[in-house]
């Protein structure tokens, strides 16, 4: 049975633990780690057993989990990916990444790929808060002409973004949907760090950070994060739009991101692979 170690016991980590605990995935949560002991204790109290096994999960250090688990799931921060991905992969332990913005550095991404290849381990990056990555992956096989992401966010979701501060864009003056940024994904992940995961996932599936076009719209008329993905290539043209409910526990995170991690776990453990 797949033994899982969780790094990060916030919204996504808790949802993964609860899904495994319910027994729908043939896996067990071996242990959890969070640099907040309180967060780790809170999730452990919610768990009755450890998924399909009857062992209760415990708190461990990441190093202990890497030595004992088949899969480490990072749902913490980019720093956690930078710190624990390579040690896990070097030990032959698979690593699932939610803070995919950590891969905006191409040297680190290459090192991760080479390390996994050298040690027979795998990196999993779920689709997260975006949809359509299945079609994007397929379309990329034949070559892509363009990939663009348009993100529409409520004003509160953009407050404090470095690009807006540097360009003196005053969000309080915006009364109607307004484009506040147009550029590449490479520029967007620096200017809008809160958008980094969607930009990174799309860029890695498609044509990279420098060629992926990003438009960000500040929209005072909405309360949800809306992403549109448009892809053109030899396959034809694809357009996808998603309106994400924020999670009740962490409004910065879309509920779909946690669901995508649970769905990825189902795929990893299921003998039949459909629609990926
Ligand atoms: N791929 C996507 O589309 C997508 C979507 C939403 C969120 N995310 C990312 O997933 C991650 C988790 O999201 P969440 O909503 O569960 O966040 P959260 O804030 O609810 O929980 C994160 C938890 O990780 C812990 N943590 C942070 N850094 C740590 C470290 N270095 N070591 C140990 N613990 C650490 C925090 O104490 C916190 O309990 C975030 O980085 C977020 O940006 C990705």
Describe the structure concisely for a colleague.
This protein is of the alpha/beta class and 276 residues long. It has two domains: 141 residues, Rossmann fold (3-Layer(aba) Sandwich), CATH 3.40.50.720; 112 residues, Dihydrodipicolinate Reductase, domain 2 (2-Layer Sandwich). It contains ten helices and eleven strands.
Q: What does this protein structure show overall?
A:
This protein is an alpha/beta fold and 276 residues long. The protein has two domains: 2-128 and 256-269, Rossmann fold (3-Layer(aba) Sandwich); 133-244, Dihydrodipicolinate Reductase, domain 2, CATH 3.30.360. Helix content is 37%, strand content 24%. It is built from ten helices and eleven strands. The protein has helices spanning 11-21, 37-46, 62-68, 78-90, 106-119, 133-141, 162-166, 185-191, 196-205, 255-269; strands at 2-7, 27-33, 58-59, 71-74, 94-97, 123-124, 144-153, 178-184, 213-218, 225-233, 236-244. The strands form two sheets. The chain has a six-stranded parallel beta sheet, sandwiched between helices. It is globular and about 55 Å long. The mean pLDDT is 94. The structure holds nicotinamide-adenine-dinucleotide (NAD).
List the defining traits of the structure above.
single chain; 276 residues; alpha/beta; Rossmann fold; Dihydrodipicolinate Reductase, domain 2; five-stranded mixed beta sheet; 11 strands; globular; binds nicotinamide-adenine-dinucleotide
CA radius of gyration is 19 Å
**Largest sheet descriptor:** 6 strands, parallel
CATH H-tier superfamily of the largest domain: NAD(P)-binding Rossmann-like Domain
- The span between the termini is 22 Å
Task: Note the beta-strand portion.
Answer: 15-25%
What structural category characterises the helix and strand content?
alpha/beta
Listed once per kind, the bound small molecules are: nicotinamide-adenine-dinucleotide
Total discrete domains: 2
Number of helices: 10
Molecular shape: globular
What would the average pLDDT be, to the nearest integer?
Answer: 94
Can you write the helix and strand succession as a string?
EHEHEHEHEHEHEHEHHEEEH
Number of strands: 11
Low-confidence stretches: none
Helix content: 25-40%
| CATH architecture tag of the largest domain | 3-Layer(aba) Sandwich
Q: Could you name the CATH class of the largest domain?
A: Alpha Beta
Give me the side-by-side strand order of the main sheet: 3-2-1-4-5-6
The CATH topology of the largest domain corresponds to Rossmann fold
């Amino acid at each position: 049975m797949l033994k899982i170690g969780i790094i990060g016991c916030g919204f996504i980590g808790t949802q993964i633990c609860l899904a495994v605990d319910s027994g729908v995935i043939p896996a067990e949560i071996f242990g959890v780690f969070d640099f907040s002991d309180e967060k780790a204790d809170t999730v452990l109290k919610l768990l009755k057993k450890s998924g399909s096994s009857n062992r209760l999960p415990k708190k461990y250090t990441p190093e202990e989990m890497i030595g004992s688990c088949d899969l480490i799931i990072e749902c913490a921060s980019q720093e956690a990916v930078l710190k624990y991905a390579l040690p896990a992969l070097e030990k032959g332990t698979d690593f699932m990444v939610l803070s995919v913005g950590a891969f905006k550095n191409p040297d680190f991404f290459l090192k991760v790929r080479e390390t996994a290849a050298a040690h027979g381990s795998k990196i999993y990056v779920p689709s997260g808060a975006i949809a359509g990555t299945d079609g994007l992956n397929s379309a990329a096989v034949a070559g892509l002409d363009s990939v663009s992401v348009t993100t529409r966010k409520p004003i509160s979701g953009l407050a404090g973004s470095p690009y807006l501060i540097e360009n003196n864009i005053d969000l309080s003056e915006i009364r109607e949907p307004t484009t506040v940024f147009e550029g590449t994904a490479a520029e967007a992940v620096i200017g809008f760090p809160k958008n980094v995961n969607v930009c990174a996932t799309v860029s890695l599936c498609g044509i990279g950070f420098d060629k992926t076009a990003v438009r960000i719209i500040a929209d005072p008329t909405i309360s949800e994060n809306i992403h549109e993905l448009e892809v053109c290539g030899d396959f034809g043209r694809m357009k996808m739009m998603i309106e994400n409910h924020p999670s009740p526990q962490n409004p910065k995170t879309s509920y779909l991101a946690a669901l995508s991690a649970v769905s990825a776990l189902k795929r990893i453990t299921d003998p039949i692979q459909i629609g990926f």
